[in-house]
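User: Modeling request: complex.
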Amino acid sequence: MNPYRRSPWIIASTILVFIFLYAPIVVLMTFAFNASRVNVLFTGIIPSFGDYQIVNGNVTQSPCGPFHWFCELSKNTAVLNAAKNTMIVAITATVVSTIIGTMAALALQRYNFRLRTFSQISLYIPIVIPEIVMGIIILVLFSQLFTSINNVLNLTGDARLNLGLGTVILSHISFMIPFVTLVVQARLQGLDKSYEEAAMDLGANEWTTFRRVTFPMILPGVLSGALLAFTLSIDDFIITFFTNGPGSTTLPIYVYGLLRRVITPELNALSTIWILIVLIAVFMIQRMENRQV
Amino acid sequence: MSEFAVELQDVVKKFITPEGDELAAVNHVSMQIKNGEFFSMLGSSGCGKTTSLRMIAGFEWPSEGEVFIEGKPMGHTPPFQRKVNTVFQNYALFQHMTVYQNVAFGLEMEGAQKAEIEKRVKRALDMVQLTGMERRFPKQLSGGQQQRVALARALVKTPDVLLLDEPLGALDLKLRKEMQLELKSLQQQLGITFIYVTHDQEEALTMSDRIAVMSKGKMMQMGTPVEIYERPHNRFVADFIGESNFLEGKIKSLSKNEAKVFVPDLHVELTGMPIADDLVKGEDVVVSIRPEKIRVAEQSANQNCFEGKVVNTVYIGSDTHVVVDVKGARLKVWEQNRISRLDPKSFYSVGESVHLVLMPENTLVLKKD
Amino acid sequence: MLKRLRESKSAQGTLLITPTLIFMIGLLIIPLLLTLVVSFGQRSADGGVIYTFSLDNYIRLLGYSTDCPNGVSSCFNPLYLQILWRSMALGFNTTVLVILMAYPLAYFIARVKPKWRNTFLFLVLVPMWTNFVIRVYAWMMILRQQGVINSLLGWIAGLFHMPFTPLNMLYTPGAVLVGMVYEFLPFMILPIYTSLEKIENSLYEAAADLGANPFRTFLRITLPLSMPGVVAGTILVFVPVMGTFIVSDLLGGAQVILVGNLIQRQFLDARDPTFGSAASLVLMVLTLIVTYFYTRKFGFGAEIVA
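Assistant: Request completed. Predicted assembly structure:
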């Protein structure tokens, strides 16, 4: 019996689902090279390099040629600022949540303590409740807290506490810790305790054991946890939407704001770059996971 | 230096099962292991032998009682402060380190100099015949080689006591026999105390100076291989080590080295050696007889002789195993094949009448438990 | 102190978990409790919160209204119940569609030669990691009046010299459904794949050996054994669908208002955080109840983590 035998129905539906998955992405990327300025119809790829020329609403010539919209994008300070914010949030939140999440995984997998069950359950909550609820409750906390502090201390103007990058980072960290913990915990579960016991048996204390044996052995898990956290953070819309403030717009928030008003090929150029970056990141995660096996 | 390398005093280890029940994996166990001894803990899985070993290593702490190493009470001393080292069942070689780095790890922890480490690692690898394998990773080695690395890694620390947790369990039979001899000679050569955990009775009998037989968290008997086999203290040990025939009966009369026991199954009185001190007249007991210690005779002889019919015979090369029905009781009898022969008629056949002779000094009277 | 820490495994564990607990208590438990308190409060004129204890917000969600026609002081207004019901129905429809599309694909990947599996999984992951908002944007481009589908249809009609009026697809409930299915399809494929991949080949051989044809093998072996994956996938799809507001906002326009939109508007446009808090908590409790009964019936989907 051939285990790889497949029915034509399965193959046909697989192909259809893949078309469904990829058609929107192809559309997005194609329109990034669209000559039409209003980006309604696809009027062909911008044909040539040269001084900026526009005929009947179509770009016919640009210093960047077909990459005209990518060049426009690179001049858009709002986008660059949003990209900078996204990276600041993602990097800070990833580093902090990876460290804290790895510690939690170690505690839950290797130690017994009184708050163990409570901790495990509270770590499941952010995963099972709708993300919007996470965003709302944090917004409620910060807005009530900040209002009280501002009133009590009589803060005015710039001194007033407000939503901003700080609140976004804090909420991302608390949202990402459970995911990092789960990934590292799974890795630790697969790691026999005897390696750590062997290290201690040979004279290594707890810290040396962690540094020389446990950590190198769970490193692939920690890295894929960190990558997961990073992608969750740069991708996050809902929580950021409720916790950001003036000057802390991230890319997804910026795109959403734009979509409600105008649609330009610049947005497609942005999407294309984004997809390529994510492609590389996902590829790296896959490589990492393969190495774990 | 203390007389005992390791001593367990009335040790209890309780665990909480996932269902929330309390389970005593080790239940009031005491043992003394002498310096330079090859000591085995023998029992089936869940008997508490591995837990006892882990308490000596320091991976677990006793719930009650105390573990002494070289006469010092260990209390909550962590593993890295005990002068014992362990060879793990799955070897637990660090996968991300080379053979050299694995063996050197323990010396680094002691803060030894680089040159010193190099010298001692080389010596240890020579000892286990792994010279030239320094740069390999554990995954590139065979099971037997990994086992040797694990051994070298523990021995390079020159521990007072080496703990071995079923170290040969994963090897095939032939390699296992080789390693048994090698381990034994290594132990004699180094003079280190070995504490060896196994479920394989043959392994324990072959290698050990003394054996502790354990069951369900309790110590059943401790003694030399000969004592354990020839004078089992109870029915469990007699049954677990080797094979035995058990006949239930009642003590008719009792003296210091002889007990007359009435065995209702055979309608006869058997004379045997009383094992426990506290046997009393009229007590229900078990008579244990090893199958190889029953003699088959052509004709009826003295008092401990029975007539029976052959029910089954199996030829296993060195011996022939015969099952004989004596008045409804089945007795296993092993006869050595001392003479080379082929003729089927020269072996016992099913239905044939035979006489079995049980010498009183070969039968043991045990408490019925 | 150090000695105590060294000897107490419990103290070491507590030390390691402390930072997590600070975050979980500070940014999860306390906010949840505070939101509960706020939901019992009343909105102040400037959009702030007056801390009282009243169940008004919950009563309002259930349909009690004081804003009635003909000068009546109170009446029944099922608006919010309708929104809740619509969200649940959309969640259900999306989940069913997603299962129907994900299962064959997951089955295909699980049965493809092992060296190809990772490649196919990679292909499934790529759209999932493309930003959520961008994926909605792609569908706006496709479904618009002058979007890709209408252009294609118009072009085909032109070939046959037929008159063509562009279809109205964007800003309809259908567009929201398509968008939701697209957003969450990969979340179903992965867990189903994980549980299908765990089924050993010998089971299929045993079923065949015992006389089951491929269809019966599928019904009696494959399907039951892949249920944990379907359960996990359902939770991963149903819960976020219930709480998403961008898809309905951008693809449904004003047509399709879901719980997510309702909550978002309370905090941004209507400036009534107390009512928004109540709605959020009701949403949370509803999804937890559905998840709880669903997992209890079918067993917990361990695949969620995988």
